[in-house]
Design a protein that fits this description.
It contains 14 helices and 2 strands. The chain is mainly α. Helix 4 packs parallel to helix 8. The protein is flat and about 75 Å long.
């Protein structure tokens, strides 16, 4: 009688026990992730479920709440005071996301071209560090500094007056027409360095031979970047879009310190409106509703960017 090899016998015995993959049963794997899931459920899922429940009440945070059903959600779409913060966020999207990405891409293209041609740029590391520095500084400090810059007697207006441009001097964050763009420009200043570093990392992966081939074919600097550099930045552009859009939608520090939502309601954004309604006006139900809708918008934007980026890579 010929005995079967040990490996064959082991496979047969495993087949009799079950047809699943080798290793420990799946139930044991669930036990490994159970502690992490309990922490996530306790600090994320349960507060989210509780917030959804509170959004159906009119509650001041102290007394008993009054059931109002979907009235808080209807108010977001019918009350101009609740709609305007989301409109202001759309304006900030251009300053926080679109402008920094365009500027960062242009600067990264210039730097990468200097490296690929061998000419180099003096002080490249210092220049990159200075542009990325706003990402390191706390936004509260950034807001205080720019509030002083924008002051009626601040450096910006003093410079304009010194150049003989007195007519262009304004109370930048004290006038409704200029306050929101002024806050947005600070967001541009903060986000440009992040986009630049991301795009430089992406362009560093492009072989120098591709740039040389494009130049031999007669491509100029712009054409060279569009043909060689831009296709290599799809992943980095998706990351930059996600980070900057989320930053624009959830901005709070700059508005709170620089303008306090003013003048009037010219710079109110969803995050600041949530704080104001919950802690100043005693409208916790309305504030929770705004926070949930803001979370939904951020989640939808993130998923959309991820899907588009994955589709472009196929």
């Amino acid at each position: 009688m010929v005995s079967e090899p040990p490996a064959v016998g082991a496979r047969r015995r495993a087949g009799r026990r079950g047809s699943g993959p080798p290793g420990e049963p799946r139930a044991v794997a669930y036990l490994y992730i159970l502690p992490g899931f309990l922490i996530f459920a306790g600090f994320m899922l349960w507060p989210l479920v509780r917030a959804v429940g509170l959004s159906f009440y009119e509650w001041d945070g102290l007394s008993l709440g009054v059931w109002v059903g979907l009235d808080n959600y209807r108010a977001v779409f019918t009350d101009p005071g609740l709609r305007s913060p989301f409109v202001h966020s759309l304006v900030l999207l251009a300053f926080y996301s679109a402008v920094p990405i365009v500027i960062g891409m242009a600067l990264a293209g210039l730097m990468a071209r200097g490296v690929s041609t061998g000419s180099g740029l003096r002080g490249l590391g210092f220049f990159r560090t200075v542009l990325f520095l706003p990402q390191v500084v706390t936004l509260v400090v950034v807001a205080i500094a720019w509030r002083d810059i924008y002051a009626p007697d601040g450096p910006l207006n003093e410079l304009l007056r010194a150049l003989g441009l007195d007519a262009l001097a304004h109370a930048w964050i004290g006038e409704s027409d200029y306050a929101l763009p002024a806050v947005g420009l600070v967001g541009t200043w903060v986000g440009t360095g992040l986009c630049l570093v991301l795009f430089l990392a992406g362009l560093s992966k492009v072989p120098r031979e591709l740039y040389e081939s494009a130049r031999l074919d007669g491509a100029g600097p712009v054409r060279e970047f569009l043909v060689v550099g831009l296709p290599a930045l799809r992943g980095e552009i998706a990351v930059a879009l996600t980070l900057t859009i989320v930053a624009a939608l959830r901005t709070f520090d700059l508005v709170y310190v620089m303008t306090g939502g003013g003048p009037g309601t010219a710079t109110t954004v969803p995050s600041y409106e949530v704080y104001k309604r919950a802690f100043q006006d005693g409208e916790v139900g309305s504030a929770v509703t705004l926070a949930l809708l803001l979370t939904a918008v951020i989640l939808a934007a993130t998923i959309a960017i991820t899907r588009v980026a994955e589709g472009a890579d196929r």
